Amino acid sequence: MSESFVASLSHFRGAAVFNPWGDVDLEHDRDDGGPEIRRRQLLHYLQERIGVADTLLCAEAIGYQGGHFSGIPMTSERLLLGGLSHKNLSPEMVFRGLVPQRTSREDLKPLGFTEPTATIVWGFLADQGIDPRRVILWNAFPWHPYHPEKGFLSNRTPKDEELAVGHQMLLQLLELGQFKQVVAIGEKSAQQLQSLEIAAHKVRHPANGGAGKFRTQMLELLEKM
């Protein structure tokens, strides 16, 4: 089931949208094998969690510093490459059945791209000793929307018509995972889930000074399970 889900993700194409699992970033990928590596990494991530995870944690969209190169939502390439060990974060937290690979050019970021929000989310799991397999990280729009005038190394808010397509994939994942709870990160994600009539708890987005409240709210939700 996870294989067909990842395959479906790779088929989407949209204007000013990068599909990590189907598109090659000709400017920033190290070679044309990026999509295959990212598909493989997402597949291992999901296979280690489907049937185990009790919580789906949903943000808004993939970012260029996270899933664009790692292939995994809210997960940076630097984490996969072991570059955040000083923060007590290891690649084995993400998946264990595969040696992680980078897809970005080494000269861009020698240690790989890193995303502040991703580091906070994974850091919360590590600091609290929570089994990372309990949580699947996802996005209401699972691909990377960017500003055409700025290029791939930029992020933008997905449009309503784009979200409609992303929501189809979210509903498939909810059916696949049979989660006990869904948690929305931030107001935008909460509104999107509400529009789909998906019952969800809302937590503070960890960006812009919200990390402390995010940790407190997440801990309370996970301790109740």
Provide a descriptive summary of the structure in words.
The protein has 225 residues and is α/β, with parallel strands linked by helices. The chain has one domain: Uracil-DNA Glycosylase, subunit E (3-Layer(aba) Sandwich). The protein has 8 helices and 6 strands; from the N terminus they run αβαβαααββαβαβα. The strands form 2 sheets. A 4-stranded parallel sheet has the order 3-2-5-6. Strands 1-4 form a two-stranded antiparallel ribbon. Helix 1 runs antiparallel to helix 2 and helix 1 runs antiparallel to helix 6. The two termini are 26 Å apart. 43% of the residues are buried. The mean pLDDT is 96.
Short description:
This protein has helices at residues 2-10, 34-47, 67-70, 77-80, 116-127, 160-177, 186-195, 211-224, and strands spanning 17-18, 55-61, 135-141, 144-145, 181-185, 201-203.
- Count of individual beta strands: 6
Mean pLDDT: 96
* CATH class placement: Alpha Beta
* Residue fraction in strands: 5-15%
CATH superfamily: Uracil-DNA glycosylase-like domain
Spans of at least 5 consecutive residues whose pLDDT stays below 50 are: none
Overall body shape: globular
Give the end-to-end Cα distance, rounded to a whole number of Å: 26 Å
